[in-house]
């Protein structure tokens, strides 16, 4: 059984399949889920589907991307995407069917699908559990506008703002410093 943090890392990786880091002015970032086979690859890699379910349709790929973008809006410190429409997210979940399995040590939700839809439904179950167990807030998006990398904050307060203090954190601090410095120069 994987821990909540491992699951958070996986969800962060799902968000980062749309890499929004800008390497040059006007860079739209990199979309990794460009075709159904790439989605299958990702789902297999994260063991959300088995080899026997390794197929995806164009519709499933589209659903994956919309789901990813809508879920991303629910990241608690996300200032880049605006507030998500809860209704839209709820509507999206209606594309999936779930069953309930009863075990000796508890019950769990299971997806009632095959192929890529099964993997996406499984991912949704994981998000649901992460939100229920109250560690969802530890999934964060980097505050730097030209980064927006999604990361998992394992620090004690769990309120990190930058994917890396070395890179984005210092960059932001230097910017503030330059800004203040510039201001004081002009007022003299
Ligand atoms: Zn960053």
UniProtKB/TrEMBL annotation:
Q: Which residues cross the membrane?
A: none
Q: Extract the InterPro entries matched here.
A: ABATE (IPR010852), ABATE_dom_sf (IPR023286), Znf_CGNR (IPR021005)
The Zinc finger CGNR domain extends over 138-181
Q: Which PANTHER family does the protein's record reference?
A: BLL6575 PROTEIN
Output this protein's name: CGNR zinc finger domain-containing protein
């Amino acid at each position: 059984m994987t821990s909540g943090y491992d699951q958070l890392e996986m969800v962060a990786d799902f968000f980062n399949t749309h890499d929004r880091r800008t390497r040059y002015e006007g860079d739209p970032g990199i979309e990794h889920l460009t075709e159904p086979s790439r989605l299958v690859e990702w789902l297999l890699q994260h063991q959300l589907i088995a080899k026997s379910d390794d197929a995806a349709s164009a519709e499933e790929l589209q659903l994956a991307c919309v789901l990813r973008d809508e879920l991303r809006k629910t990241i608690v410190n996300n200032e880049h995407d605006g507030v998500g429409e809860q209704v839209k997210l709820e509507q999206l979940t209606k594309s999936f069917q779930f069953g309930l399995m009863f075990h000796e040590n508890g019950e769990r939700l299971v997806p009632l699908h095959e192929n890529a839809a099964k993997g996406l439904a499984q991912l949704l179950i994981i998000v649901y559990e992460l939100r229920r167990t109250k560690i969802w807030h530890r999934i964060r998006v980097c505050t730097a506008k030209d980064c927006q990398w999604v990361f998992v904050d394992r620090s004690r307060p769990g309120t990190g703002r930058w994917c890396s203090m070395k890179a984005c954190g210092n960059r932001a601090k230097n910017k503030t410093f330059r800004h203040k410095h510039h201001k004081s120069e002009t007022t003299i």
